Amino acid sequence: MSIFWKLFAALMVLLPIVALAIWWEDGAWQNGAMTTKGFYSVLGCCSAALVMMGLSRWLKNRQTQKN
Amino acid sequence: MKETWLIHISTFARVLSLAFGLIGIWLFLYYWDPSRLLVKRFQAKSPEIYEKIPPHFMEINPTDFISFHNTAKTVNGRTNLLYAIWGKPQQPLDQQPIASFLNFKTTSPECPGTKREYLVKTLDCTYPLYVGMKNLIKIDRLKVPISPYFKPEFTHFQPKKSNGRLVLYHNGYASTYHAQWRHIQRLVEKGYAVMAFDMFGYGGAIAGIDWKTLKYPMRPFFEPVVVALNYATTNFRYKSIDMIGLSAGGWITAVVAALDDRIRRSYPVSGVYPMYLRNPEREVATPQLYKPMLKAASYLDMFVLASLGEGRRQVQIFNQYDRCCFRNRFGKLYEKAVQETVRSIGPGDFRVIIDTTHARHKISRYAFEAILKDIEAP
Predict the structure, then answer these.
(1) If you write DSSP's letter for every residue of chain A in order, what string do you get?
(2) Tell me: domain B53-376, CATH 3.40.50.1220, correct?
(3) Which of A27, A33, A49 sits opposite B20 (nearest CB)?
(4) ipTM for the complex shown
(5) Which of B36, B231, B323, B367 is the most exposed place for a label (fewest CB within 10 A)?
(6) To probe the interface with A, which of B3, B6, B10, B355 has the most A CB atoms within 10 Å?
(7) A50 to chain B nearest CA, in Å?
(8) What is the pLDDT of residue B39?
(9) How many domains is chain A partitioned into structurally?
(10) Domain that holds residue A41
């Protein structure tokens, strides 16, 4: 995995954690500094990004094994 | 052949991953207050939306719109205002609410199933928000009989360990007061009793009437608060009664505080500008333009009335980068004029705070801390 994808994966893990921390710290509600909707949206998108990265890597590995 | 497909799918998954990741980063920036503020400033079509004061506003002297310059004029002005709203020189001081559900509890919350359910959520639905709230001893639900078809409810949150003070909260349009449950919680935790109101047509104030057809059309907006004040002063011995309002709730706060000096401190948040500073597209909700009311007193006159009196003060808070309305720093244009008028008549004070910490239509933590500090100040 290239440095770019490693950094991207780290960012996708860190971003929801930071969003969770902000959301929680300001009351874990819709009117906080990070809205509930915002936290769930960030969590959803970053999880989807990680799943797609995993899928891509798995397919690549499978193909390498076949070759 | 199969291998080629695997390569294509793998590449597609990588592109999707990148796309989701970028959207995730954008959403983080969009929903986090400090970065959203930068986004909104960047997106603004004109600097006059949030930051620059249009030159024609600078040329207007707000004192020209203030006609209450002495005690006699303020007394007369308040009487005229009361006439415009109730058709008599006094608010309905003898009217009491009906107990709808004292010590409210439910084990099976019932929520409406409509798409816009957040607009009609009542305590029946949102009760779980308050279960286990620190320092809360009971919730009373009361009704104000305004007409056979309109009996708006308000909720009285009572603290176990009380500091002897009451705060009224009015929510305004676009949601119910339950959307502000953290602020209610914070007040109750600190020992304040809270009475919370929904706007006419929302939540506990769902309307079976058209306010425009009433003989005194402003009654449904202001009477619930006045009746709650009657109830509070008759049945409890609160040391002070203060009022916070958001958006149109801020408008109600400003007007009721002008009408009824039982309200000591008032905090309209993003809810009221004098007419000359209003955006004709965004800040002209019909009830706020009721002619007999505005003939009796301009909004600047009402700010004077709401600020006058021993220990009384009005602190208006505006979100400079508000996505909705009542934004920019216009409040600062009339702050001094109202302050000076109040000080020339008698005790009392008026202030404007500009909240620059976010770009939403809400009471931020910064604003709420400022309100709490002011309520507790002598």
Answers:
(1) --HHHHHHHHHHHHHHHHHHHHHHHTTSSTTSSB-HHHHHHHHHHHHHHHHHHHHHHHHHHHHHHH-
(2) no
(3) A49
(4) 0.95
(5) B323
(6) B10
(7) 7
(8) 94
(9) 1
(10) 3-61
